[in-house]
Amino acid sequence: MKFIIALLGSAVAISKRSYHREEPSSSSSSSDDEDLQLMGDFFHARDIGTGSLDKKYERVPPENFSSDSDDLFMRSMIMKYAMEGKNEDESPNGAFFMDEASTRAASSEVLSSHKGLKGAELAEYMKTYFPRTWAHYDVNHAGHIGVESMPQFMRFLASDQTLNL
User: Fold this and answer.
1) pLDDT tens for residues 140-152?
2) Segments making up each domain of the chain, as ranges
3) Which of 10-19, 65-74, 88-97, 101-110 is the most confident on average?
4) Residue 70: per-residue pLDDT
């Protein structure tokens, strides 16, 4: 009985830590930094070029996705749709994530261009398959997934594991 109560208490504590932002204390550790990142201080693609003159946000893709000969799909996801994490000093940290809204927009583009779905047919497909695909990848209900999961996400959503992205 004591074990069950302790287990429930741990689950509640983990749940509260995941969804409530706490102010950092003077004795912050790396796990505190990770908790802050999970809470969603992000730069969005729409923020590129914004900010004060001395702190304009410029998105820099990782080296392996920065040239024209690299993975164009991943570069597109990073530059057009992904959110980039922020450090404590409000500078970009190079960690890219996709929230549900940006993933939905990217999915519509991919399904339109690669499966030829348009209009009502695309809307019905998205209504039927997007929620279950999102739930499959966002298993912790964090509200975002790593951008590196996007090729698998799109293939799963399209029900085509050979989809050439």
Assistant:
1) 999 999 999 999 9
2) 31-158
3) 101-110
4) 66
Two structure tokens written together for 142: 């964090």
Cα distance between residue 99 and residue 122, in whole Å: 20
Return the amino acid letter for 41. Answer: D
Q: Give the pair of three-digit tokens for residue 148.
A: 């590196």
Task: Round to whole Å and give the CA distance between 17 and 111.
Answer: 36
Distances (CA, A) of 54 to 28, 41, 46, 50, 88: 28, 20, 18, 11, 17
- Would you state the structure tokens that stand for residue 20, as one six-digit string? 């409530």
Q: Secondary structure of the chain in the HEC alphabet?
A: CHHHHHHHHHHHHHHHHHHCCCCCCCCCCHHHHHHHHHCCCEECHHHCCCCCHHHCCCCCCCHHHCCCCCCHHHHHHHHHHCEEEECCCCCEEEEEEEEHHHHHHHHHHHHHHHHCCCHHHHHHHHHHHHHHHHHHHCCCCCCEEEHHHHHHHHHHHHCCCCCCC
Closest alpha carbon to 152 in 139, 133, 135: 133
115, two tokens: 């499966």
98 in Cβ contact with 80 (< 8 Å) = no
